[in-house]
């Protein structure tokens, strides 16, 4: 018997129609509300054909199922995804040092800024990664260069990535990398390394217009960074690099983002096809220290205003290219994702760096299999299988769950919040770009 998949959401646009979204497969259509209500009662192929005519096949494949155990199938699929070894993801934190002192930095006061990867750690990191590639028999490896500010110890990557790149090329393994950087240390030499290392994208944070940005993302000496960063972003784009501008949105700058988009358009940044703009929220990652919690949304009106940001983004010529917005599943949920800190300590996720209970080994001695298994075994989404969003958020961020509940095995559920932001996100991502 046919029935509409339980993993769907219908968002009303107005009294007459809305968006029907398959949250598992990602399919989306605009549909009359009256038709959607009829879909809920469809139970055989004949009714479906009468309802949709020529569109029957597409609608059937996108939104209907004849199985009674969707939850079981979802469970098996999420397990399969989690333990798939085809793709190895390695985050390398070359340093905890940073040349900025961003006001909301979750690392501020929690890490020793003087820690850098030594030549010995660099060598052992390279060797451990090569061993892991061989052990996993992966078909693809992705490097994430992170910190601190990774450019403060850029030489560490020179001792690791070229060796791994050569091995992958000879072994027929797909190789790519991306970097999260504040964008203040970019030059022609760095650009060439990015190209040599098959840099898939360069993520750089910009927090709004110059006035707002320069009050938040500041150098150690207190000077602003806006002009430096924007010039470097343009330099990278002009040299055919893909740049992701990450806008960290919070209670203090949400009303400034519209002006920022208008300024970007005014400076002709909308002409760059390799520019991607992502809206991200400041979240309670790491310990809820004062400079982090002061920037988290606490007012409902501010939360409601977030959904309007995608209107501003798209209407100013910057299409939404992110796979999913805030609170989507994280690559660090996967069993084949590892983070290596400047001391060579291994974690599942960069958010846990510095917390001893989440260490799962080091590059000198290898993984501690028992510690690794004790952490990776938790499927935070098992109690979420009835939720329409389980394939998207998979129980939420583990680090946020730990911070807010003090329990690693807890969920970090934002269902109500996702319900509020998804309609406008989907309208801007799928409908506006096709009209």
What this model shows, in words?
The protein has 435 residues and is an alpha/beta fold. The chain contains 18 helices and 15 strands. The chain has helices at residues 33-39, 45-52, 56-63, 70-82, 119-136, 155-158, 161-171, 188-196, 210-213, 226-238, 257-266, 290-293, 300-306, 309-315, 369-376, 390-393, 398-405, 415-431, and strands at residues 3-4, 8-12, 17-22, 28-32, 64-65, 87-93, 140-146, 174-181, 199-205, 243-249, 275-281, 337-340, 345-347, 361-362, 366-367. The strands form 3 sheets. Strands 11-10-9-8-7-6-12-13-14-15 form a 10-stranded mixed β-sheet. The radius of gyration is 23 Å and the shape is globular. It starts with a strand and ends with a helix.
- Strand residues, percent: 15-25%
Structural class: alpha/beta
Q: What topology, given as strand order, has the largest sheet?
A: 11-10-9-8-7-6-12-13-14-15
Overall number of strands: 15
Profile the largest sheet: 10 strands, mixed
The whole-number mean of residue pLDDT values reads 90
Helix content: 25-40%
How large is the count of helical segments?
Answer: 18
Q: Any idea what the shape is?
A: globular
The low-confidence parts are none
Distance between the termini: 36 Å
Rg (C-alpha, Å): 23 Å
């Amino acid at each position: 018997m046919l029935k509409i998949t339980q993993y769907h959401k219908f968002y009303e646009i107005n009294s007459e129609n809305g968006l029907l979204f398959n949250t598992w497969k990602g399919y989306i259509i605009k549909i009359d509300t009256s038709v959607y209500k009829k879909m809920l009662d469809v139970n055989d192929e004949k009714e479906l054909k009468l309802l949709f005519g020529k569109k029957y096949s597409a609608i059937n494949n996108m939104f209907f199922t004849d199985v009674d155990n969707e939850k079981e199938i979802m469970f098996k699929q999420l397990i399969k995804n989690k333990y798939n070894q085809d793709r190895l993801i390695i985050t390398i934190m070359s340093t905890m040092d940073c040349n900025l002192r961003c006001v909301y930095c979750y690392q501020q006061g929690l890490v020793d800024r003087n820690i850098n990867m030594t030549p010995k750690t660099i060598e052992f990191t390279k060797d451990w990664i090569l061993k892991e590639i061989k052990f996993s028999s992966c078909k693809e490896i992705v490097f994430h260069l992170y910190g601190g500010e990774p450019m403060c110890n850029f030489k560490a990557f020179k001792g690791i990535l070229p060796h791994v790149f050569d091995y992958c090329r000879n072994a027929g393994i797909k190789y790519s990398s991306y970097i999260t950087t504040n964008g203040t240390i970019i030059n022609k030499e760095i650009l060439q390394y990015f190209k040599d290392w098959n840099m898939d994208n360069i993520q750089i944070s910009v927090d709004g217009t110059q006035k707002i940005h320069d009050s938040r993302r500041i150098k150690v000496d207190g000077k602003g960074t806006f002009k430096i960063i924007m010039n470097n972003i343009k330099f990278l784009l002009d040299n055919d690099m893909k740049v992701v501008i990450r806008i960290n949105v919070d209670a203090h700058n949400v009303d400034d983002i519209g002006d920022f988009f208008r300024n970007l358009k005014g400076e002709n940044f909308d002409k760059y096809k390799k520019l991607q703009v992502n809206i991200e929220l400041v979240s309670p990652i790491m310990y809820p220290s004062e400079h982090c919690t002061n920037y988290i949304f606490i007012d409902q009106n501010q939360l409601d205003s977030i959904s309007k940001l995608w209107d501003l983004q798209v209407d100013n010529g910057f299409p939404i290219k992110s796979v999913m917005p805030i609170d989507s599943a994280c690559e660090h949920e996967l069993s084949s994702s590892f983070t290596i800190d400047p001391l060579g300590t291994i974690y599942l996720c960069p958010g846990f760096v510095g917390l001893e209970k989440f260490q799962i080994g080091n590059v000198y001695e290898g993984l501690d299999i028992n510690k690794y298994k004790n952490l990776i075994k938790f499927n935070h989404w098992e109690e979420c299988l009835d939720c329409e969003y389980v394939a998207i958020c998979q129980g939420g961020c583990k680090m946020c769950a730990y911070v807010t509940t003090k329990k690693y095995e807890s969920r970090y559920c934002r269902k109500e919040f996702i319900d509020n932001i998804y309609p406008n996100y989907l309208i801007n991502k799928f409908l506006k770009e096709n009209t």
